[in-house]
Queue: 2 jobs
Job 1
Amino acid sequence: MSDAKIIDGKAFAAKLREDITSEVTKLKADHGVTPGLAVILVGEDPASQVYVRNKGKQTLECGMNSYEHKLSPDTPQADLLALIAKLNADPNVHGILCQLPVPDHIDEQAILAAIDPAKDVDGFHVVNAGALATGGEGFAPCTPYGCLMLLKDTLGDLSGKRAVVVGRSNIVGKPMAQLLLKESCTVTIAHSRTRDLPDEVRRADIVIAAVGRPNMIKGDWIAPGATVIDVGINRIEGDAGKMKLVGDVEFATASKVAGAITPVPGGVGPMTIACLLNNTLISACRANGVAVPKLGFDG
Ligand SMILES: Nc1nc(=O)c2c([nH]1)NC[C@@H]1CN(c3ccc(C(=O)N[C@@H](CCC(=O)O)C(=O)O)cc3)C=[N+]21
């Protein structure tokens, strides 16, 4: 068995950001509109700080405006809701993202519900989750949407393929399953209570791993030639006590069997931010009655 094709999410995301930058340039020149993304971070979680910094940097690089709101960890929920209300009403803000997780004293669902669905570029509001499930116009969550771009770039038409999504979270597993269903895949959602998980995975042409457990999915679970998308981003101790990033799939064994596989890092992660910028561009177009460009997919 020859080794799998490595799906270069980092390069794909860079190309997508270039296309977004061109569209932003046009939007400014033709309509005088600059897309704006507001990112809210409550608290000082180091990983979250890194993500927020990267988002801000890439937002500016695409020619968009970036508004960062860093709030102390003990910010009352009412203050956060007041900030969201202000951003909802601000015409210069086209996308609003509140970095998750939020501290325990804040009700995550209340925060997500407060964001105007038309500015919910994360796609986490129930209105957007419902639109995705029923075929309406909304925002698809960034991580699964990025996975779909990589899958279609790798495989072309997905219809009739067996896909297994391992993980049932609201932010990845469930919306991923909806997107694959829209592409006419036969979709299985597996999770911690699934009986004989290796067997479910072995039946799949497409494996989406989104459980958050390092190296859980082994090479001998993968059907020869299958396409493997690894959403996991796990920090574990590597050689000499140095921390390293690994996915939910055991890459060394899976890459011997799969037809194509995403690495961690450099796979799905960069796609998440690129799709966030894409959603912000879409929002700015919709808010100004401009035709929405369809980026990230051929044809
Ligand atoms: N409201 C909200 N929306 C989010 O989209 C959101 C969130 N909260 N909370 C945290 C997670 C995590 N997330 C990532 C984004 C980019 C990379 C990324 O670019 N990863 C690089 C490596 C980065 C590194 O070295 O740490 C890669 O995989 O190559 C990873 C993870 C967005 N999230």
Job 2
Amino acid sequence: MNALPDKIDAGTAVVCRDATVTYPGGVCALDRINLSVRQGERLAFVGPSGCGKTTLLRVIAGLQPLTSGVCQRSNPSQHGSENKQEDAVEKSQYDEAHEEGHPCAADRRSVSTSFVFQQPALLPWTNVLKNVALPLTLGRRRERSSAKELRERALAAIEEVQLTEAATRYPHQLSGGMKMRASIARALVTRPEFLLLDEPFAALDDMLRNQLGRLYLNLWRHHRFTSVLVTHNIAEAIQLSERICVMHRGSIVSEMVNPLSTSKPHEDLRRTNEFAEFFGKVSDGLENAASSNSERASS
Ligand SMILES: Nc1ncnc2c1ncn2[C@@H]1O[C@H](COP(=O)(O)OP(=O)(O)OP(=O)(O)O)[C@@H](O)[C@H]1O
């Protein structure tokens, strides 16, 4: 595993030290996580259901209070702050928003962090343009921008995801892939420092998944946000990330630098021997963790 820097510096986006989360009721979702994420890095968490991926994503976003340990983010407005009491207040807002499928959960906390979830959660009563502009509208007073400026920024984000022609359509008039594009545009419209993606493409078929994966890489090349992707899909993690953390039962059991990482979408990557080899390495990491756990349980 990478050595953790002593303190958060200009090139580091997040550092977690012994980050532990035990939920009320006693479930230990994260067990002494040590992790450092570089600014502009594309990181993926893979692991079985319930291993703590989403919890770690929320810790990184500053939305989940720790039971013990520290998580520091380099967000200029919170530089060097520790993930303590302040987050307890934010968490309840986030949970309320997330459970209701509120599209701007992250923006309630900070324009510097955006989420993309599996469900695009667009507001059904308004069109793509207004859905995408919503985070800007909510932060308008803070940003002191005119309605015209906000509209232009929203239109630019819509153009980036190639949805310009659907800007005046309502969510029920969009395909699944178009809804996800709108959701990505809404996440990026605030130019976030962090883009956190929780199984964003899991509900889509392979073709759409690949299309959106390419879109995501193109957007990253353009904006260089720090990105953390949660996925069950090893192939997707390899295609989209520079580093893969394999999680099991609240721990990061292995961390692998992706030798195939490229920000340029590579159509034939999946057909190469190198891909098969690295895929095998990541799935071995998952299987080894599962078997060492079951051995421990039976001894
Ligand atoms: N609010 C909560 N209260 C109590 N336990 C929780 C809460 N949220 C998650 N957990 C538990 O914490 C553990 C980790 O959950 P988490 O959602 O982080 O896992 P995950 O790896 O993202 O799972 P999945 O892939 O199924 O989404 C699980 O055992 C889960 O049941």
